[in-house]
Design a protein that fits this description.
- By secondary structure, the chain is of the alpha+beta class.
- About 30% of the residues lie in helices and about 20% in strands.
- A hairpin with a 2-residue loop joins β3 and β4.
- α2 runs antiparallel to α5 and α8 runs parallel beside α9.
- The relative contact order is 0.11.
Amino acid sequence: MPYIDTPETNALKSKIEKLLATIPEFIDEKQNLKINVIKDYADRGDTKLLEPLLKNPQSKKAFFAPVLDSFVFNTVQFKEFLEYSSSCNSYSKYLGKQIGLYMGDSSLTDRSEVVLNFPFKDCVLEGGQKKEDGLDAYFEYDEKIKKYVEKQGKRKEVFYNEILARDEIDSLFSPKAFCNAKKYEKNSNSVVESVEILKFNRNEEGTITDNLIIKGNNLLALHSLKKQFAGKVKLIYIDVPYNTGNDSFSYNDNFNHSSWLTFMKNRLEVAKELLRDDGTIFVQCDDNEMAYLQVLMNELFDFIQIVEIKMNEGAANEFQNPFMPKNCEYGLYYAKNYNTRKYKPLWIERDYDIAYNQFITNKNEPNYKEWKVKSVKEVLKERNIEADDVRKFIIENADCIFQGIGPKGPGIGLREAMDRSKMNNSWDIYKRDGKEDIYTYRGRMVRFYSKNIGTDKNGKKTILKELGSLWADIKTTGIAPEGGVKLKNGKKPEALIERIIEMGTDEHDIVLDYHLGSGTTAAVAHKMNRQYIGIEQLDYGENDSIVRLQNVINGDPSGISKSINWQGGGSFVYMELAQKNETALHLISSCKDVSELIQIFEELCSKYFLHYNMRVKDFRKEIETERFKSLSLDKQKEMFSRMLDLNQLYVNADDRHDKNSGLTQNDIKITEDFYELKKDGE
């Protein structure tokens, strides 16, 4: 039976609440009872709850029934009592409360024990980004055709926590060695060339000031950046894998969302460490994972805004969606610290707002009460203004054009001025000390169109409006050739990235993109004189970010170049995370016959990292068969090479002097300079 509002039950409730509040596990940081936590303890019969209730005579009498020499706890009755409130079903219960989901008397958003939970949340996902990484590849001998056939099966995701011990996870995230470091810049003949470098440029604080492009697994690269760039990045922009089934994110369908969230969480957590306290992060995605991503980011960052971005005109994909054509994506804009974030309002060009439809024909008249008014249409007709010249006329005469509005809740002074102008069917004015005077006309407040006039990037007067959360003004079609690279799918307009960079950074601030793709973020940051760090593990060949950035240095005229008068110049450093398995590949390639291959098999298995998708146990037996030995040496080496994980396994910086690291002396020097390590490892 529900509890009834009586003095006795109210008194008991007060005493029980005080008793429960003495137990730390039962209260939150605001000293409110965690009702659901207490219920859970009651369901489990936990002694932390039962002992104090038994020791208190009143609670013992209310919730325990004597049975022989013992007492039985009435769980149901106790839980009903917890839910009881003397203001139940009353209006006063909800005074001052926010709308939303509650646990007891506290909103879910105010309770620290409420989190986004999903399978594998506490795991580390390898996150291979190649299409083929979604498949399990292996060789099987076909008796009918008498040769080995490569087969593929659905890949099982590589969650490092399930495979590696804790100390190996620490090793996985330790700083990685770099190799093949090259600096790209113009030489004396104005030709962009690469030069091997051994040392980075730094500012007075010791921070590297070179633009960086890093090739390798982005999770490991982000961890490798922490020592040099933690707390120094002003803006992170990422265009994430959308997990649509058609992109590069191919994982087990049974845990599709969970795998994707784990992948994102691993990287967002370390990315947050790199942000400045006043830094922001802008994540672009579509509706496939947007809702999940927003909840995840709410846990890690401070929410600022969700932006809708028009990404196509509709015609291109109207047959690709069984319902409505998709023509927008989303930008999730967050801060590391909302209170210290920095944001610059942006203004964009707009068409003439015809609501401003009245024109003062004699604005030069000193006595405002003598101002004469006509409609804008009348004036345009009288002055024979052609349609093509209307915008120019509006801009030049904006201080004469106005609209009358009815403000909400006007103050006494403004209300009196409006009343006077209505009574006189003419003009009046509300004078304000230290502030701009407000004109009124025929009972309405006057807003002049001159407030909508500003200057564009070239200093030219134009009609502007403040940028809102709907971005439909940026052209997203016909951008494939931007930057001299032709990535057809997923490429973002330079104008879009320019806007995001302009909102949250100043010149020389650091911009990070760890899903760099064809390099749009780096290209725009380069042109806007921002320092940038780009990370990408895929090789796009002739459409790679390296190619694009060389074009930028050469004065690439596409994208935003014309609007900012880009003439070229600058430089960037390219380097790779050093892969440990390079040495193993050399071992395989140096073998002269199958017997040497078989001899190094156990060494490969014990000393190097094998590809998790390969069926190594079966292959160990297979290499001893006559059918394997009858293959050509090249085929045997190919199959041995397939044992190795060639994409995700890298050399730790601490192991740079290991004779099996595969690093050159120059690789070691650039690694030591990046981490500011001494030759003895200190």
